[in-house]
Amino acid sequence: MQVALKIWRYDSSTGERVLRDYEFDAPDEATLLDCLDIVKDKHDGSLAYRKSCRMMICGSCGMRMDGAAVLACKTRMYDIAQDGHVPVISAMGNLPIVKDLVVDMDPFWSKFKAMKPYLQPGYDVPQDGREYRISQQRMNVVHKEALCINCGCCVSECNAMESDPEFLGPQALAKGMRFVGDPRDAATVERLEQYSGPHGIWECTRCFFCNERCPKGVDPRDAIAKLGAEAIKEGIDRDMGAKHAKWFIRSTETTGWLRETELVPKTQGVVSSVKQMKFAMGLIKHNKAGLAFPPHVARDVSEARNLRKLVSEQDRQGALGHVQGERALARLAHGHSGDESLEDIYNRQGAFLRPYLPGEGSAEGQGSLTQADVTPGKEPTKKPGGGA
Ligand code: SF4
Ligand code: SF4
Ligand code: FES
Questions:
Q1: Residue 192 in contact with residue 180, Cβ under 8 Å?
Q2: What is the per-residue pLDDT for 222?
Q3: CB of 221 closer than 6 A to ligand 1?
Q4: Average pLDDT over residues 89-106
């Protein structure tokens, strides 16, 4: 097949940046990484990029295609070339570029290390002298997180990191959940305290780009939600984000809907409420404050209350509840109805690729990546410090 690429070339030592065109023949089965190899071998030996395994395991070949992070060795070029599309390849975002498609991973690794990404064992040695056994249900909580290959694709697209480069970020927090959720780890509370601090869990904007771009189905945003749930379960709720989450639970339980106007007085206290009075008056003036008294109560509020009761009775307030929710949401998202099984749904003509579901293995190594692989955008985003 005939392939055409546009590649952003960059040299951090000179600051020179230029978009170069390449056209060449490639085998039909070629991936983006194979195509870069062809460019480097036959057309331009100065092109710099990272690679190692060529099979979606080492995490070296993260880069952007048309403005969205991909693993080059996972991205097949056939359909793109047949469509006549010329993708724009650039370095990952949120990390400083060293040269062409190679970024400086030091900031990434220092956040990774800050999570203490190793087991701090605190379990009793089983009396029979055999291995420590964990139920499948408990391991389901961290199964997705354990799939991470540290490629950085999630970090590349994280908009909380864009506004706060100190934010721990999706990869590091997913790694943190890997150990918080491990029943053998004895440092759960210390970890949750650390991850709940400034630049931690509650700084995530919930944009879900990390879930969308993760090539391994780790779904880091889900991991962050699990961390939040575990933190609240352990009573670690000093952060305003945790207070907001708690208020939303309370408001759905009492009236069946989210009473956002009460958020500030209920979570930030009187002084802060007074400071925001001018803003509140503006809302009232434009009839946007929702100040009905007594507050409107949803007709089926008992359903919200029963749901909360059920979660509590089943002891699913923390991460376990999220795992259960993921399974239910996956069914809804894929149009589950009546007696139709998940298998039936994925066998439908034109169905999405099957996402990874906890405990069910990952289909075709695709994880939960079901969104379009191509995001429009010819220009790489410029970041302070030279990141693309
Ligand atoms: S959901 Fe949160 S962690 Fe994920 S990309 Fe968005 S801001 Fe970053
Ligand atoms: S969470 Fe996914 S995208 Fe992020 S580093 Fe791990 S494998 Fe890569
Ligand atoms: S080369 Fe190892 S993940 Fe792509």
A1: yes
A2: 93
A3: yes
A4: 96
